[in-house]
C-alpha cells in the first residue's frame, strides 16, 4: 500500500507545479519596461547636446585686409558718399492733360529743347483758334470805331467854322464836341479790346505750347515715370514727382556728395584736393576738389554735405553710385593715382588689445586664429598696419570675449 500511495502523491505535486506562476520571469520583463523611458530620454538629450555643439558656433562679421589706396598717406580724413548731379530734375508738364506720346526712353541722351513728350492738345487748339477769332473781331470793331471818330472830328471842325460865322447855335457846337469826344473814347476802347484779344491769344498759344514737353537742359533720361494714356497734372510743391514724365540727369555735371561729421568740418575747405573712389571701380582713384560745403547740419546725424567735383568725370560713372572720398593734405601728382604705398588697412574696430598687445582675429577655414599686428596710425574709421595679415585675409569686426583660438565660427555674409 505504501508503494501505491507514493506515485499518486508525486503526480499531484507535478500538477500543482505546472499551475504555479513564474514570478521571476515577470519581474525581469517589468524591470526591462521600466528602463525603456529612461533610455529614450537619454537618446533625446544626446541629440540636443549634439545639436547645441554643432549649432553653437558664434556668428561673426568680417572684413578683408586691404592694401592702402593711392594717396592714403596724404589723406587728412575720409568720408562716404554717393555720386550726384548738379542738374537733376523730374520733368512734368506745366498744364494738366492726357499723355499721348513719350518721345524718349530710358538711357536716351537728349539736347536742350528736344521734345520729350506730348499731351492731348485738342482743347488747347480750340482755345487758340477762338483767341485768334477774337483778335479779328476786335480789329474790325477798332476800324469801325476809328471811322466813327474820324467823321466826328470832321463834323466838329465844320461846326466850329460855322459857329465862328454864327451860322449855327452854341448848342449845336457843343453837341458836335460831345459826339467827337464819345467817338474818340470808343476808338480808345476798341484799341484796348484789340490789345486784350492779342494778349489772350498769346496766352492760348502758350497753353498750346505747354502740351509739348521739352528738355530744359541737355542730359540723359534715367527713369521713365509715365506712359501714353496717363492723365497728368502739374507737380505740386508739397508732393514731389507727382505728374512726372521722365527723370533727366546731366551726366556732365556729376560730383560726389560726401557726409562729413560736424567736428571734422574745420579740416575741410573749398578747393581742397581730394581723391574719389567709386564702389563700382574699387581699384581706381579719381582726382577731385572740394566745390562747396553745404551751410547746414543734419541734426539727426550731426553731419554736413560736402560736394566734391571730379577733375575729369570718369566714363561709366552714374548717379547714386556709392563712393568714398579721401580729403588730402596736398595735391598729388598724376602718377600717384595708380601707385599703392604697400600699407595695410583694416577697420579700426577689428584691432583689439589682448595680453598686452594689439591683435586681430583671423578667420581661416571657418575657425579663429589670433594674430598680433603692429598699428602704424589711425586714418578715419580704419587703421594702417605696419605689420599684419596679408591683403584679402578675413578679420573679425568688433570681436567679443567669446572668441577663442581654434573655435569654429559662422561668418555672416552681407545682409546675413
UniProtKB/TrEMBL annotation:
<feature type="domain" description="Multidrug resistance protein MdtA-like barrel-sandwich hybrid">
    <location>
        <begin position="91"/>
        <end position="232"/>
    </location>
</feature>
<keyword id="KW-0812">Transmembrane</keyword>
<dbReference type="InterPro" id="IPR058792">
    <property type="entry name" value="Beta-barrel_RND_2"/>
</dbReference>
<dbReference type="GO" id="GO:1990281">
    <property type="term" value="C:efflux pump complex"/>
</dbReference>
<dbReference type="InterPro" id="IPR006143">
    <property type="entry name" value="RND_pump_MFP"/>
</dbReference>
<dbReference type="InterPro" id="IPR058625">
    <property type="entry name" value="MdtA-like_BSH"/>
</dbReference>
<protein>
    <recommendedName>
        <fullName>Acriflavin resistance protein</fullName>
    </recommendedName>
</protein>
<keyword id="KW-1133">Transmembrane helix</keyword>
<feature type="coiled-coil region">
    <location>
        <begin position="128"/>
        <end position="162"/>
    </location>
</feature>
<dbReference type="Pfam" id="PF25954">
    <property type="entry name" value="Beta-barrel_RND_2"/>
</dbReference>
<dbReference type="Pfam" id="PF25917">
    <property type="entry name" value="BSH_RND"/>
</dbReference>
<feature type="domain" description="YknX-like C-terminal permuted SH3-like">
    <location>
        <begin position="343"/>
        <end position="411"/>
    </location>
</feature>
<feature type="domain" description="CusB-like beta-barrel">
    <location>
        <begin position="256"/>
        <end position="312"/>
    </location>
</feature>
<dbReference type="GO" id="GO:0015562">
    <property type="term" value="F:efflux transmembrane transporter activity"/>
</dbReference>
<comment type="similarity">
    <text>Belongs to the membrane fusion protein (MFP) (TC 8.A.1) family.</text>
</comment>
<keyword id="KW-0472">Membrane</keyword>
<keyword id="KW-0175">Coiled coil</keyword>
<dbReference type="Pfam" id="PF25989">
    <property type="entry name" value="YknX_C"/>
</dbReference>
<feature type="transmembrane region" description="Helical">
    <location>
        <begin position="35"/>
        <end position="57"/>
    </location>
</feature>
<dbReference type="InterPro" id="IPR058637">
    <property type="entry name" value="YknX-like_C"/>
</dbReference>
